[in-house]
Amino acid sequence: MKLCVFDFDSTLMDGETIDFLAKALNFEDEVSRITKKAMEGEIDFFESLSERVRFLKGLPTQAVDEICHNLPYMPGAQETIGTLKKSGYTVVVFSGGFRNATSYAKEQLGFDADFANILHTKEGVLSGLVGGDMMFNYSKGDMLQRLQALLKIDQKNTMVVGDGANDLSMFEFADTKVAFCAKEVLRKKANVIINDKDLTKILEEQHICI
Questions:
Q1: pLDDT tens digits along 131-157
Q2: Considering only Cβ atoms within 10 Å of each terminal Cβ, which end of the chain, N or C, has fewer?
Q3: Which CATH number is 184's domain given?
């Protein structure tokens, strides 16, 4: 048995979920600037997430779901996940984004489980607060170790795929570290670098037949 963990935003999905949500309230520029700094490792992820989610206060949950159900998936996402599963991988998503997006994507793309954050709602609108599984810089590495222990899969048989600084912690616990169209801070720690927006390149790099 093998394990592959994907980041979601800018990895399985072409863009950042929170930027799409902020656009609905005309705060896209403000939020995307903070997102960029967080993904490059310039600011603390927890602080940046809390700051960005505050911009979403008042957005109706119905609008959140509509946006999250229409996000553009990365080319090759479904094909790559399906091929990995046929090759014996358990495929999981760790996201510093939100379950509104990842749980829907699970049904569309076919991965096995998702771990993400939850936007707090009150009376049908976002409150500007957030909590969940992936709140901190270390969250992905911490969850990966738990998952490996539960599934009895070692580091040698683990592949991780990400693009930003909050993926660094899971790179520590996988032998195959894929930087996908990634920020420089993550590329430095990777042993597989893919620069094209085509997830099937991962299969080519690992010599897995489609």
A1: 999 999 999 999 999 999 999 999 999
A2: N
A3: 3.40.50.1000
